[in-house]
């Protein structure tokens, strides 16, 4: 019985991990990303969100507001809605993703976002700022 519970818990954890990790589809064509040449930040999520998913968005918004005011645009897209699906296809995104975009450069911070948003938000803010500063 203990073995059955262990197996069930393992599948549950793996399932939760899969639903909260962003993967880009390598087969998707990269469309024209940013015509204005500005740095843009996108967060793609599903309708149903865990505490970490919400924290990634909150920490990202805080980092952008604290460091750039309104100079850097941030848009959050629900992948289950038409506009979210369309933008995800345009950027080649297939799952929950935190993406920094400038021209044809895309920086995927999804793994770092999910790793640090709740446990070390200052580290995530620093990473976001460093990546954006490198693009400016």
Question: What report would you give on this structure?
Answer:
It is a single chain. With 136 residues, the protein is of the alpha+beta class. The chain has one domain (39-135): Glutaredoxin (3-Layer(aba) Sandwich). It is 50% helix and 16% strand. The chain has a four-stranded mixed β-sheet with strand order 2-1-3-4, sandwiched between helices. α2 (51-68) links the parallel β1 and β2. α2 (51-68) crosses α5. The longest helix has 18 residues, at 2-19. It is globular. The relative contact order is 0.21.
* Averaged pLDDT: 82
Helix content: 40-55%
Based on CA atoms alone, the radius of gyration comes out at: 16 Å
- Total count of strands: 4
Sketch the topology as an H/E string, one letter per element.
HEHEHEEHH
Individual helix count: 5
CATH topology: Glutaredoxin
Runs with pLDDT <50, length 5+?
Answer: 21-36
User: Which band does the percent of strand residues land in?
Assistant: 15-25%
Instruction: Count the domains.
Output: 1
* Form type: globular
Let me know the CATH homologous superfamily: Glutaredoxin
Give a quick precis of the structure:
The chain has a four-stranded mixed beta sheet with strand order 2-1-3-4, with helices on both faces. The chain has helices spanning 2-19, 51-68, 82-91, 110-116, 121-135; strands spanning 40-45, 73-78, 97-102, 105-108.
Task: Name the features.
136 residues, alpha+beta, Glutaredoxin, 4-stranded mixed beta sheet, 5 helices, 4 strands
Q: Could you give the topology of this structure?
A:
Blueprint: H1 2-19, E1 40-45, H2 51-68, E2 73-78, H3 82-91, E3 97-102, E4 105-108, H4 110-116, H5 121-135
Parallel strand pairs: 1-2
Antiparallel strand pairs: 1-3, 3-4
Helix pairs in contact: 2-5
